[in-house]
Amino acid sequence: MREELNQGLIDFLKASPTPFHATRSLAKRLEAAGYVRLDEREAWRVESGGRYYVTRNDSSIIAIKLGKRPVLEGGLRLVGAHTDSPCLRVKPNPELHKQGFWQLGVEVYGGALLAPWFDRDLSLAGRVTYRAAGMVESQLVDFQAPIAVIPNLAIHLNREANQGWAINAQTELPPILAQLAAGEAREFRDLLAEQLTLEHGVVADAVLDYELSFYDTQGAAIIGLSGDFIAGARLDNLLSCYAGLQALLAADADESCVLVCTDHEEVGSCSACGADGPMLEQVLRRVLPEGDAFARVIQRSLLVSADNAHGVHPNYADKHDGNHGPKLNAGPVIKVNSNQRYATNSETAGFFRHLCLENEVPVQSFVTRSDMGCGSTIGPITASQLGVRTVDIGLPTFAMHSIRELAGSQDLAHLVKVLAAFYSSHDLP
Predict the structure, then answer these.
(1) Rounded distance between C-alpha atoms, residue 125 and residue 211, angstroms
(2) Nearest-angstrom CA–CA distance, 335 and 262
(3) Burial class (CB in 10 A: 0-12, 13-18, 19+), 152
(4) Which positions are annotated as binding Zn(2+) (predicted)?
(5) How far is CA 267 from the centre of its chain?
(6) What's CA 379's distance to the chain center, in Å?
(7) Do 151 and 99 form a contact (C-beta atoms < 8 A)?
(8) Which residue ranges of the chain lie beneath pLDDT 50?
(9) Intervals of CATH 3.40.630.10 along the chain
(10) Which H or E run includes 394?
(11) Dist. CA 266–CA 274, nearest whole Å
(12) Pick from 228, 199, 181: which is nearest to 329 by CA?
């Protein structure tokens, strides 16, 4: 079971280099399990026992399983995660021709660790909008091959590199795509038109715009002398998306369940398809009873917000509170912050801890050091938007926001087990 889940995650990460691809991957798996796509522009007909999903912007997805038990009686069991990860996004007019090299200007998306992006084999993926036969269309593209690199400067020319180096995102991050002949220049949109033809057989009159990200072509892998770890890009937070999907597919048919995976968490979630936008409430209002009954359902519901937690690093253990250092392969972490950077309270934490104990899943707690700032996630945002009780949890991770992160190879199975138990639980607090 553990090995199968880990390999499934590795395959999912490979198929999901961007939020667009992650959403498409989730949708394909839901459709294979009998979920029906709902179009937000059309009228909906939903029924008890039905399975549905909705996407917005091609980068956020909500899956809903309506149970046999009346939703006014049992409420909703929601699991939330996010589809985006810090990365380098290509600028609208990116062409740079310097010293005979073709480079692309990039913008840093989210709070990325920049140093690990150097000397990696990079590819490019995302969404391209184009005109063909007078129509405006969009397609997802993925070059897959390593087409770019950001070479480091030799230490001989940067003697202070190991004493601390402030990376200039404007001047030091443009990846190199090719070496050009004297006087030669390349247009990025021409390259995208070629890729559309190669990947989709599309002959575009013009490439109008795009949202494209560089990514590391090295695939995720189980590593360590005893296979203790899983290393890969975008574990934050595609690991939680995948765990939520597996749990949803394993849930029984009695209770009503929701999986919500939204874009733009790494930049604040404030968008039409982000957790700080209207998407979740708008979708739920279309499938749940109206008016007073809707509020009653929400107050009978509970959200498990699943986003990676900071594992205690052996080289930097002093960065953690001494009593709250989550360990890899020791189970999911309940995240607590008295200043509401996490939405966990004693009731929701207690219920999640109860689920873990009942299902023999190890569980841990995380509180940041009192002299350090605390990050946040979709939990407080969704709680404030929807008014739903929430517990923030996640699997411990090293190198969060790096181009290659590290988690425990046993923890995915722990998380899927407790989330499946949550989806199937008959009594919420």
Answers:
(1) 8
(2) 20
(3) middle
(4) 82, 156, 401
(5) 12
(6) 14
(7) no
(8) none
(9) 2-85+233-424
(10) strand 389-394
(11) 10
(12) 228
Is 324 annotated as belonging to a binding site?
A: no
Going by their DSSP bridges, the two strands 221-223 and 396-398 should be labelled as unpaired
CA dist., res. 305 & res. 391, Å (int): 6
- On whether the CB atoms of residues 204 and 377 are closer than 8 A, the answer is no
Task: Decide: 177 and 102 in contact? Cβ < 8 Å.
Answer: yes
Please tell me what DSSP assigns to residue 319.
G
Label residues 314-334 b or e (16+ Cβ within 10 Å = b): eeeeeebbeebbbebbbbbbb
Is-contact 192 128, C-beta < 8 A? Answer: yes
Both tokens assigned to 33: 């399990």
pLDDT given for residue 375 in this prediction: 81
- Taking residue 295's Cβ as centre, other Cβ atoms within 10 Å add up to 12
Angle at 353 between CA 347 and CA 358, to 5 degrees: 125
92 within 8 A of 212, measured Cβ to Cβ: no
Q: Over the stretch 344-370, which tens digit does the pLDDT of each residue have?
A: 999 999 999 999 999 999 999 999 888
What's residue 108's pLDDT?
98
At residue 335's C-alpha, the angle toward residues 248 and 330, to 5°, is 75
Say how many Å lie between the first and final Cα of the chain, rounded.
Answer: 30
Paired tokens of 348: 């929701």
Residue 301 φ/ψ, nearest 5 degrees: -105, 170
Detail the DSSP E strand segments found in 40-166: 51-56, 60-65, 76-82, 87-98, 101-109, 122-132, 135-142
What's the CATH code, domain 87-216? Answer: 2.30.250.10
The answer to whether the annotation marks 320 as part of a ligand binding site is no
- Per the annotation, does 82 bind a ligand? yes
Find residue 139's DSSP bridge partners: 128
Looking at the chain, which residues constitute the CATH 2.30.250.10 domain(s)? 87-216
Q: Are strands 176-179 and 135-142 parallel, antiparallel or unpaired?
A: unpaired
Please give the pLDDT value at position 7. 98
Which class is 2-85+233-424 in CATH?
alpha beta
How far lies 128's CA from each of 131, 189, 368, in Å?
A: 10, 10, 40
DSSP string, 164-221: -----HHHH-PPEEEE--TT----HHHHHHHHHHHHH----SEEEEEEEEEEE-SPPE
